[in-house]
Amino acid sequence: MGSERHGQEGGRVAEARLPSRRQAVRLLEQQRAEIDELLDRLTPADRERPGLGGGAWSPKDLIGHLESWEEYVLDAIDAWQRGERAPIDTLTYTVSTSRINAQEVERKAGRSWAQARSSVRATRAKLIATIEGMSEKEWSSPATPRARKPLGHRVGQLLVGTRDPFTHERSHLKDLRAFVHERGHER
Questions:
Q1: pTM metric for this prediction
Q2: Short-list 157, 18, 22, 13, CA closest to 76
């Protein structure tokens, strides 16, 4: 569950054409709609039941994990706009992605489902507004004066799924679908 790559630690990210801001937002919104539809099928007890992907995470842990990476993106964009290195870049060179994920799940464990869902929605709204508020020039220009990759590419790397940028949520859909199915919440 927590071992996926986020464009760091030698993970290979597909070098596809940079999606426009609109395309990136569309990808993010489509994946979130799928996640939300599956989460809405679960009972309150199942939302906090471990076992997602055969591991220790619950659906509540998963949405906290997804939110954490969106928070890292927002912090990175703020840093890049100041011409600084993104805090997540420093973190991923000193701590494994699995450890980062575990620490974030642990940090958010005390939240109720309602608190988690509200926070996740607020973070997503801020991310979408941030992306939409950029110009295409800013999106397609290097993240900092010393950077080589466009800001949009770097955002996509941080929200990478198995290989493709902006597909982090898609990489968790199979496990969430199986979790919902195992609990008899099919539609």
A1: 0.90
A2: 157
Q: Is 142 helix (H, G, I), strand (E, B) or coil?
A: strand
The DSSP H or E segment spanning 21 is helix 21-41
Nearest to residue 154, comparing CAs of 67, 77, 46? 77
**Contact indicator for 77, 155 with CB cutoff of 8 Å:** yes
**Cβ proximity of 179 and 59 under 8 Å:** yes
Report the chain's terminal Cα–Cα distance, integer Å.
25
Tokens of 41: 């099928």
Indicate the DSSP class of residue 150: B
pLDDT digits (tens, 9 = 90+) for 109-162: 999 999 999 999 999 999 999 999 999 999 999 999 888 999 999 999 999 987
Domains (ranges, CATH) in the chain? 21-182 (1.20.120.450)
Asked if 105 contacts 172 with a C-beta cutoff of 8 angstroms, the reply is no
